[in-house]
Write a structure and sequence with these properties.
- The structure holds two protein chains of two kinds.
- By secondary structure, chain A is an alpha/beta fold.
- Chain A contains 17 helices and ten strands.
- In chain A, strands 1, 2, 3, 4, 5, 6, 7, 8, 9 and 10 form a ten-stranded mixed beta sheet that branches.
- Chain B has one domain: MetI-like fold (Orthogonal Bundle).
- Chain B has a two-stranded antiparallel ribbon with strand order 1-2. In chain B, strands 3-4 form a two-stranded antiparallel ribbon.
- In chain B, β3 and β4 form a beta hairpin.
- Chain B is flat and about 80 Å long.
- Chain B is mostly helical.
- The chains are: A alpha/beta, B mainly alpha.
- At the A-B interface, α4, α11 and α16 of A face β3 and β4 of B.
Chain lengths: 415, 289
């Protein structure tokens, strides 16, 4: 017992020394999926240049990250670098004085303005996180099943549903691997996936912010009507199907199409033993332009109370380099660096996702910038109504009206 | 103990800028607004819908527990306390076992058991040709709350069982022997001799269930996440509080409104306990053996 106690004391000593050691930069992150990439590739690459700065990548469970990191910042025991959620969650941290302003950090000129918007104040006078990566949406499909059933890639809404109908009538596979038990999954990978094609990308997103467009407009109702038809092609009992269930359904080869975000590429390429690829979100019949979501998802900022500000800044500056962009894009495929550097990506599915941006205009999710701020929050309302529509417990018209009403509750341009 | 409670009530009288900017006319991020938060919570549709919905679900959750868990606990305890039963220690341990399991594990387990893709009810029902009555119970608006209540009842039925069992064992043999001599059968003895003697324990169990249920949070969180889906049909006061106070995903937390929800929950529990104290505990007859 005594021995155990002394070992414990010894260990806690060692750890506290380790933490206090000058030049150790601790990164707070929710990306535990990427921990290997950080520990084995990214940090060693950084240390090859700056051997004196020790970097520790420390993760929290994703859905508790926001709450835990703000509690840590308030309590003064957060790491030096804080991985930033886009928009308001991080803006709040900055407003409280917990994130340092990064104005004048060299290397910030390597990003387009739309990338910096996610971590700037509304008037763009301050930037507080270095943009890191974006994610895209689309549909992944099982190439073997498509070959077996002789299917071709659908481009329009009616082609999409005729493909689903063929898979369904064959009867061996679930056409669409997605469920509604995790409401964020269906809203993000359904609504925000095909949505930009319906609301014309940035035009519709800015229209919602300015109040010129409403969720009761016909193109939003058409979008919800299209989603309402998905239910027929999902696994039976999809109302209780969770996000991990859907992932397994697809990676086990039991489902043909998986409405997705590009972040899945990384885990799927490790787990699926069949060939898969991706096709872009389908367009309403008769529309020629296409739009894809390229959502600014991860940034990284500095704790204002950091004990190692100089070392942290060196690390942040290194993050803006082409070297980091290339390692990151290849080690964490599916997260696309926001830098303007041109880089090589080797993963074929990630390449496919990136290629859409050549032909299609990009946009970000319509529910986060400015309109994601009030109570109730638009994003949460969309999660609720979209899952209701797909479950068939809410009509597309009611869903549009509910989303509009929630916005009108606090947002003057919609009142 | 007392300080956080009163501080919560104090915070519920303030409002706060969610973006962390200072409030008008003051240097602090919070401003005093009296009972406005309570007024908003009960009347403004955006809050009140969630509040009444959570309260309604919670009441339903409690009624299911009281009307199913307590009688089953009593029944099992009655069986276990009968002298002729063999292996009673084994049964007792097995029935109490789930109460010692982590809720996260129980939630995960039942999510898998009831899964629409790899669950087992379909197979079991299929064996007897009833697979058409299988439904994705956890994903449907009506059945979801009932299903979760039943899981919680299953897990914690050991606790009333233990309490009742201990109370039943406490009844002196002389009383039971006297009943036997008077010609009372097992049923009559149970209802007219044993039950009145353990009635205070039954009351205690009901109020423990009441307090536990209105504070419940973990099982919903483990099984349905903070969205208490589908469409908030499994939302309880605990999950509603957590969403309000800490925020979730893109929604920023609102600590002052969260404190209002917490204080209201405290009020509801206090009311229940007071009713128990004055309407039940002071009137029920206690027997000294």
């Amino acid at each position: 017992m005594k021995k155990l106690l002394s070992i414990t004391i010894l260990f806690s000593f060692l750890f506290s020394i380790g933490n206090a050691f000058a030049g150790t930069v601790v990164i707070e992150s929710w990306r535990n999926d990427d921990a290997d990439a950080w520990n084995e590739k990214i940090i060693p690459a950084f240390n090859a240049k700056y051997p004196d700065i020790k970097v520790v990548f420390q993760t929290t469970i994703p859905n508790q990250y926001a709450a835990s990191v703000s509690a840590k910042l308030e309590g003064g025991n957060a790491g030096d670098l804080i991985t930033c959620i886009p928009f308001d969650q991080s803006l709040k941290l900055f407003n409280r004085g917990w994130l340092a302003s990064l104005n004048g950090l060299s290397g910030l000129e390597n990003y387009p303005q739309v990338a910096k918007d996610a971590w700037s104040t509304d008037d763009q006078s301050d930037i507080f996180c270095v943009p890191m990566a974006s994610v895209s949406h689309g549909f992944m499909y099982n190439k073997d099943i498509f070959k077996e059933l002789g299917l071709s890639i659908p481009k329009t809404e009616s082609e999409f549903f005729s493909v689903l109908e063929k898979i369904k009538s064959d009867g061996n596979y679930t056409p669409l691997a997605i469920g509604t038990a995790d409401t964020w999954a269906i809203a993000t990978m359904g609504f925000q996936n095909i949505g930009p094609n319906y609301w014309q990308g940035e035009k519709g997103r800015k229209g919602i912010i300015s109040g010129d467009e409403k969720f009761t407009d016909s193109h939003y109702i058409d979008l919800l009507k299209s989603l309402a038809k998905w239910g027929d092609y999902m696994a039976s009992g999809y109302q209780a199907q969770t996000y991990p269930d859907s992932q397994n359904l697809f990676t086990l080869g039991d489902a043909a199409i998986y409405p997705t975000g590009s972040w899945e590429i990384f885990t799927f390429s490790q787990n699926a033993d069949f060939e898969f690829s991706a096709f872009p979100p389908y367009k309403p019949d008769g529309q020629s332009e296409c739009f894809v979501d390229d959502h600014t998802d991860i940034g990284i900022g500095m704790n204002a109370a950091s004990k190692n500000p100089a070392e942290s800044k060196i690390f942040l500056e290194w993050l803006t380099s082409a070297e980091f962009a290339e390692i990151f894009a290849n080690e964490v495929p599916g997260f696309f660096p926001l830098h303007t550097h041109s880089i090589n990506v080797n993963d074929p599915v990630a390449k496919e996702f990136i290629s859409w941006k050549d032909d299609c205009a990009t946009t970000i999710r319509n529910s986060v910038h400015i309109v994601g701020r009030g109570e109730p929050n638009l994003e949460s309302v969309l999660w609720e109504v979209v899952s209701g529509v797909v479950n068939g417990t809410m009509s597309p018209e009611d869903a549009g009206a509910k989303a509009e009403a929630s916005l009108a509750n606090w947002y003057p341009p919609h009142q | 103990m007392i300080f956080p409670l009163f501080d919560t009530i104090r915070i519920s009288l303030y409002t706060q800028n969610l973006m962390g900017e200072n409030m008008d006319n003051s240097s602090s991020v919070r401003a005093f607004i009296g009972l406005r938060n309570y007024y908003e919570l009960f009347t403004n549709d955006n809050w009140s819908w969630h509040f009444w919905n959570a309260l309604k679900n919670n009441t339903y959750f409690f009624l299911l527990h009281v009307s199913i868990q307590t009688p089953i606990g009593l029944l099992i305890a009655a069986f276990l306390s009968s002298k002729d039963l063999r292996f009673k220690h084994t049964y007792r341990t097995l029935i109490f076992l789930p109460a010692m399991m982590s809720i996260v594990i129980v939630g995960y387990l039942f999510n898998l058991i009831l899964s629409n893709l790899w669950g087992i009810p379909q197979t079991i029902l299929g064996v007897v040709g009833l697979e058409h009555i299988y439904q994705p119970w956890l994903g449907l608006k009506g059945p979801a709350l009932i299903t979760i209540s039943l899981i919680s009842i299953w897990q914690f039925v050991g606790i009333p069982m233990m309490l009742f069992y201990a109370a039943l064992l406490n009844i002196p043999d002389e009383i039971l022997d006297a009943a036997k001599i008077d010609g009372s059968g097992p049923m009559t003895t149970f209802w007219f001799v044993k039950f009145p003697l353990i009635l205070p324990t039954v009351g205690l169990m009901v109020i423990l269930t009441y307090v536990g249920n209105y504070n419940a949070f973990d099982l919903i969180f483990a099984m349905k996440s903070l969205y208490a889906g589908p469409e908030y049909s499994t939302d309880l006061m605990g999950t509603f509080f957590y969403r309000t106070f800490f925020g979730f995903q893109m929604q920023l937390g609102n600590p002052t409104m969260g404190a209002t929800v917490a204080s209201t929950t405290f009020g509801i529990i206090l009311l229940g306990v007071l009713i128990y104290l004055f309407a039940f505990q002071q009137r029920v007859t206690r027997y000294q053996y």
